[in-house]
């Protein structure tokens, strides 16, 4: 079975002396549970596994029950150490306070119970970790799969990666595109919206939230104002509501609205958003053409190509701790993606074979003096090389 680079990180940490809770974070269907099972399967340390998915959100005692069952197993079987794994921990209200209490109790009484927590809601996990568990945990962040990973694990070509995206669970379904779309829609989109957003947030108009996702995903790689979005929605709302929904969709790792880069923060916030999915599969479930026809339509393929580059940038932004914008002054004078971290800027222009000339990169360099200005595609860094790299390394 294919091993992602985080495999060695988790394996090394779980074999160390008990010191930190290990928290595996990432969107749905990127391999968090698989990573955990690969690691615990090769260690000589016994483990117990619990899933919080169907547990009532108010049942905090469930976490303590899991902990006590693990302790009892250690006592009954005379184990010197045990791994406790809890998946979707963020589904339980106030989970971090309970984890803190139980972890600190084990520390005080020298109980060698090692803990791995998994979760797909980044915001809910981050809030709990920062509120209660400072100094007690380490994060292992799983992003969407790179082109190199999908190529090596499933034999994907670059064109297949651009169209079908980077969900490993869907890789075996691409020969039947209807089945592939059903999987992405049901196992990822529906599950994320229904289980990660609607369960944890008070949403006045769930239908509007779904429409906001569908429109934003379909327009990935393009600018679309919130006013025009509302004009295309059946369940009308206001720009404030739609902005809030886009923020929730971004926090869930589905789709986001990028702000235009500007030195002035107010100008960034008031810009027309450029929509961007975190995985190109989320855009292409709405593509009107099947894979074979899309590849032959060079205008369409150029848009899918740019969206795939943006998805790779966005999926690594959280772990890489950088912000992403776009820049534009007029048609033909734009930069597709602007990355910002610690005062440094990276300007990235995406070029497919039929792209017209663009003076944006030259003008951006003159105005903002970026740390690096990069063309990805025709005349620059090969797309397969960029999609196999970590964009955060560009800041080095």
Could you please describe the fold and organization of this structure?
With 396 residues, this protein is of the alpha/beta class. It folds into 2 domains: 6-141, Rossmann fold (3-Layer(aba) Sandwich); 147-395, no CATH class. 46% of the residues lie in helices and 17% in strands. It contains 18 helices and 11 strands. Strands 2-3-4-1-5 form a 5-stranded parallel β-sheet, with helices on both faces. Strands 8-9-10-11 form a 4-stranded mixed β-sheet, sandwiched between helices. The protein has a two-stranded antiparallel ribbon with strand order 6-7. α9 (206-218) crosses α11 (239-251).
Quick synopsis:
The chain has 396 residues and is an alpha/beta fold. The chain has helices at residues 6-15, 32-42, 61-77, 95-108, 122-132, 147-154, 158-164, 177-197, 206-218, 226-231, 239-251, 265-269, 281-284, 291-296, 298-315, 317-320, 360-368, 383-386, and strands spanning 21-25, 47-51, 82-87, 113-119, 137-141, 255-258, 274-277, 323-330, 333-341, 344-351, 372-377. The chain has two domains: 6-141, P-loop containing nucleotide triphosphate hydrolases (Rossmann fold); 147-395, no CATH class.
Question: Can you tag this structure with a few keywords?
Answer:
alpha/beta; Rossmann fold; 4-stranded mixed beta sheet
């Amino acid at each position: 079975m294919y091993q992602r680079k985080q495999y060695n990180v988790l394996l090394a940490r779980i074999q160390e002396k008990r010191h930190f809770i290990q928290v595996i974070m990432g969107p749905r269907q990127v391999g968090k549970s698989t990573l955990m099972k690969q690691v615990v399967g090769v260690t000589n340390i016994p483990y117990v596994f619990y899933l919080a998915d169907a547990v009532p959100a108010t049942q905090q005692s469930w976490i303590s029950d899991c902990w006590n069952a693990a302790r009892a197993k250690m006592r009954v079987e005379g184990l010197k150490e045990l791994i406790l794994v809890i998946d979707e921990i963020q589904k339980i209200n106030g989970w971090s306070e309970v984890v803190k209490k139980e972890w600190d109790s084990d520390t005080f009484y020298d109980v060698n119970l090692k803990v791995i927590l998994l979760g797909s809601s980044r915001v809910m996990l981050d809030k709990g970790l920062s509120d209660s568990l400072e100094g007690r945990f380490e994060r292992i962040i799983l992003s969407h799969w790179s082109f190199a990973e999908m190529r090596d694990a499933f034999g994907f070509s670059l064109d297949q990666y651009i169209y079908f995206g980077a969900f490993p669970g869907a890789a075996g379904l691409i020969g039947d595109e209807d089945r592939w779309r059903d999987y992405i829609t049901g196992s990822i989109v529906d599950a994320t919206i229904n289980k990660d957003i609607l369960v944890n947030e008070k949403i006045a108009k769930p239908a509007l939230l779904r429409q906001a996702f569908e429109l934003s995903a379909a327009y990935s790689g393009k600018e679309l104002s919130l006013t025009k979005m509302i004009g295309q929605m059946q369940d009308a709302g206001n720009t404030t509501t739609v902005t809030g929904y886009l923020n929730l969709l971004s926090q869930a790792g589905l789709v986001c609205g990028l702000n235009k880069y500007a030195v002035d923060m107010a100008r960034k916030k008031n810009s027309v958003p450029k929509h961007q999915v975190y995985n190109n599969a989320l855009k292409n479930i709405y593509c009107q053409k099947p894979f074979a026809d899309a590849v032959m339509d060079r205008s369409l393929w150029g848009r899918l190509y740019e969206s795939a580059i943006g998805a790779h940038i966005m999926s690594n932004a959280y772990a890489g701790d950088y912000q992403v914008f776009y820049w534009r002054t007029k048609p033909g004078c734009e930069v597709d993606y602007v990355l910002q971290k610690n005062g440094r800027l990276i300007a990235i222009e995406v070029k497919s074979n039929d792209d017209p000339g663009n003076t944006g990169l030259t003008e951006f360099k003159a105005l903002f003096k970026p740390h690096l200005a990069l063309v990805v595609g025709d005349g620059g860094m090969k797309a397969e090389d960029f999609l196999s790299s970590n964009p955060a390394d560009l800041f080095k």
